[in-house]
Recover the amino acids of this structure.
């Protein structure tokens, strides 16, 4: 909690709307703060050395762990996530900081948090879960059998994200 409070202020996540979006994503990504490391599944990412970890479940060396390591080193931290990626889940500072870094610096999620519409929630959820706002995963074209980007697929845990979003909106009405 001290790290969450510190980084909310430091990263400028101050609006009610953005906080609801931020905590909605954390709730789904961590199973309500129970899992700071991706659980084993059929997804190849869960078998990777650089599987999802932290409050936003950073996944993959090149696109997440490496740039997060660079960011931490620029801040003066002596980290080695390449050889010790588990630190993103086991060290509270990095479990929390990785989420704020991903949210504000890497994916710039704030730009979609001006309102509390389901459309905004979908964009943020796709950005967090799929790394972009356009497509989520791949599926085979039924006519050609070719694997194609899935533009109408929902992010993982979409129904849970919507439910948590509504719960948080009820708890913290924005004015």
């Amino acid at each position: 909690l001290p790290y969450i409070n510190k980084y909310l202020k430091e990263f400028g996540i101050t609006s009610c709307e953005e906080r609801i979006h931020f905590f909605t994503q954390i709730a789904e990504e961590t199973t309500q703060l129970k899992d700071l490391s991706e659980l084993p599944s059929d997804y190849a990412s869960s078998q990777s050395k650089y599987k999802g970890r932290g409050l936003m479940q950073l996944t993959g060396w090149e696109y997440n762990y490496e740039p997060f390591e660079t960011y931490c080193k620029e801040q003066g931290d002596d980290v080695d996530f390449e050889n010790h990626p588990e630190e993103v889940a086991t060290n509270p500072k990095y479990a929390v900081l990785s989420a704020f870094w991903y949210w504000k610096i890497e994916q710039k999620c704030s730009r979609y948090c001006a309102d509390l519409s389901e459309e905004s929630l979908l964009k943020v959820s796709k950005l967090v879960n799929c790394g972009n706002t356009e497509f989520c995963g791949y599926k085979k074209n039924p006519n050609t059998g070719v694997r194609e980007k899935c533009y109408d697929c929902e992010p993982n845990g979409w129904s849970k994200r919507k439910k948590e979003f509504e719960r948080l909106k009820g708890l913290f009405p924005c004015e």
